């Protein structure tokens, strides 16, 4: 690995899952939902209104996600928005984004009491990602 020692980067309090939610953008919402329903043999719960359409992948435990169509949806080089696990409080991770060469796009924001919080950032390579935590 080019002389890099991985021991230097080990954490004593490693997070179990680094991804906690994902969204796949869609322009043709109904077509995208039909595609995933078909390839997985599932029926996604959908919610549609004038500003957003969202279809949830059914999960009982583990990592969930959705198909999302709204004004900002753009399949292709924009890619899926991955929600990375922010641990107990995502601010601990978010505070490290800028010192590491990234940019915070949206500060910690409450989703709702049950779901917790999220924040959005641009990483050092230009990828838009999100963080999620319950607190």
Report on the structure:
- The protein is mainly beta and 135 residues long.
- It has two helices and eight strands.
- It has helices at 29-40, 91-94, and strands at 19-25, 45-48, 52-56, 64-70, 81-85, 103-112, 116-122, 128-133.
- The chain has an eight-stranded mixed beta sheet.
- The protein starts with 18 loop residues before the first strand and ends with a strand.
Please render the helix and strand layout as text.
Layout: E1 19-25, H1 29-40, E2 45-48, E3 52-56, E4 64-70, E5 81-85, H2 91-94, E6 103-112, E7 116-122, E8 128-133
Parallel strand pairs: 1-4, 5-8
Antiparallel strand pairs: 1-5, 2-3, 3-4, 6-7, 7-8
Q: Which CATH architecture of the largest domain would you pick?
A: 2-Layer Sandwich
* Strand content range: 35-45%
Q: Residue ranges: pLDDT <50 for 5 or more in a row?
A: none
What CATH calls the topology of the largest domain is Signal recognition particle alu RNA binding heterodimer, srp9/1
Strand order of the largest sheet: 2-3-4-1-5-8-7-6
- Total strand segments: 8
Summed up, the helix count is: 2
Helix and strand run: EHEEEEHEEE
